[in-house]
Amino acid sequence: MKILTNKTELDINDFQQILKVHNNDYKHKMKLKGYYIGKHDILNKRGRPNNAPNNRIVSNFCQYIADMSTGFFLGKPVAYSTLKEYQSKLDILLEIFRYNDESAHNLELAEEASITGESYEILYTDNDAAIRFKSIPSEEMILVCESTLEENILYAIRHYRVYNFDGATYTEYVEVYDKSSIRYYDYSGTRLTLTDTRPNYFDDVPIIDFPNNKQRRGDFENVISLVDAYNMAQSLSLDDLMDFTDAFLVLKGMGGTDSEDIKKLRNNKVIVLDDPNGSADWLIKNLNDSYIENLKNRLQVDIHKFSNIADMSDSNFVGNSSGIAIKYKLIGLEQIRSRKEREFKKALQRRIELISGMLKTKSKDAIDFRDVEITFTPNIPANNQEQAQIVKELEGVVSKKKLLSLLPFVEDPVAEIEELKREQEESDESLRDEENYDYEEETETGLLAAQID
Q1: 177 pairs with which residues across the strands?
Q2: What confidence score (pLDDT) does residue 401 get?
C-alpha cells in the first residue's frame, strides 16, 4: 500500500489514521492470496433444497496465471555485470547476494507481486553484522511517500499480527521505519503504544518497494469475475449431471399412491401416476451440452486473453515451432514481463544503493549502482542453434559480452569471457612448452650426431 503526503513529518495520530485506512487494503490482498491458493467465492455457493447435489468446483486459473507469469519473468536468475575496473567491487556485492540466496529471494518477491500487485523487502544486519534482506508480506506494509515527482519514501509502516496457539486470537504490532530510526509499537486496534526505538544504520528507509506494474494490480486481478463464472458453470454442469443420473422412474397407469408411498418417494426414486395408457419413463432434465460447453470454452478463452497468459494446452503450442514462432505466440506474456522488468530493475538498483551505503560505513569498497548492468533473461524455450547462428553472424560487429548475453545458457557473460581467456592462456602456454621441448630434443639429437661423426 502506498500513500502520498505533503507533510514532511508524521506524528502518532497520523500513524493511527493510516492504520485505519490500511484495513481495507489488508482485506483486499488477503482475498487475492485466497484466490491464489484456491479459496474462491464458489465455495460459498448456497445449498439446494431437499439435499439436491450442490457441487463447488474450483478451477484455479489464478494460480496458473501467477505461476506462469512469475516463471516466465524470473525463472532464470538475474545476471549482474560491470566494467573490468569495477569487477572487484561487484564481487563484494555478489558475495552478499549469495549469502542471502538472492535468486530464490527475487523469485519470492516476484511471486508476491504477481498475486497482490506489489511486494516489499527489508534490509537489516544480523548478529554477525552481515547485511541481510528479507521479503515482507505485502498486506503488512504501508509506504508513506512525498507527494513530489520523485515520490521519495518518508516512512515505511509494518502492521502485522502474531497469532496465538489457538489460531484464532492474535496480537497486533506496528513498526515504523524512517531514515534515522526504527520505532516499535503495540497496537490495540485503536491506539499505538511505543515500546522501543532503535537506530537505522542504512542511508535511507531500509524498505524496498517492488510494484508489479504502475497500477499495482496482480496478474489475475482483472479476470476474477471470469474465473468465478467458470467455476459456477463447472459446478452447475456437474449438478445437472448428478440430477440426470439420479432421475425418477415414472410409472403411469399402474396404481395410485398413498401417504406412505409419498414418504418413500424420494428414497425409491419412483412416481406412480393414474393413467389409462400404462407406461414407464424416466423423469429427467433436458441438458443442452453444446450450449454449456460453448459457454465454458468462451470463458476459458477470455480468461487467457484478458490476463495475457497463453494456454499451454492449446494446439498452437504443439509441434516443433521455431524460437521466433514461440515468441510471437507469447507476445502478450512478453508485454507483461517487460513492464515487470522495468519496475523490478529500479527496485534492484535501490537495493544495490542501500547496500553500497552500508558498505561505505564499514570502510569497504562499494560499487555505484549506475556501474552495474542488470540483465533479465526470459524463461522461454529457445532454439539454441538459431541463437548461435545469430551470434556468429554478429561477431566483430557487437562486443563479446553482448554476444554471450544473447545465448540463453550463458548466465554470466563476464565470467564466461574470463574463463575463455584463462583457457586460451593455458593453451598457449602448453603449446610453448611443447615447442620448447621439441627444439631442445632436436638440438640434443643434432649435437649427439655431430659428436659421433
Answers
A1: 156, 182
A2: 75
Please, which residues bridge with residue 197 across strands?
Answer: 183
pLDDT of residue 182: 96
Cβ neighbors of 99 (< 8 A, separation 6 or more) are: 130, 131, 132
- Quickly tell me which residue has 502520498 as its cell: 4
Residue 62: per-residue pLDDT: 97
**What is the greatest pairwise CA distance in the chain?**
137
Confidence band for 219, pLDDT divided at 50, 70 and 90: very high
CA dihedral 365, 110, 185, 31 (to 10 degrees): 180
Full-prediction pTM beyond 0.70? yes
Q: Could you tell me if 201 and 361 are in contact, meaning their C-beta atoms sit under 8 angstroms apart?
A: yes
- Asked if 406 contacts 390 with a C-beta cutoff of 8 angstroms, the reply is yes
Cα(437)–Cα(444) distance, rounded to whole angstroms? 11
Half-sphere CA count of 252, side-chain side, radius 13 A:
9
List of E strands, 277-383: 279-283, 373-375
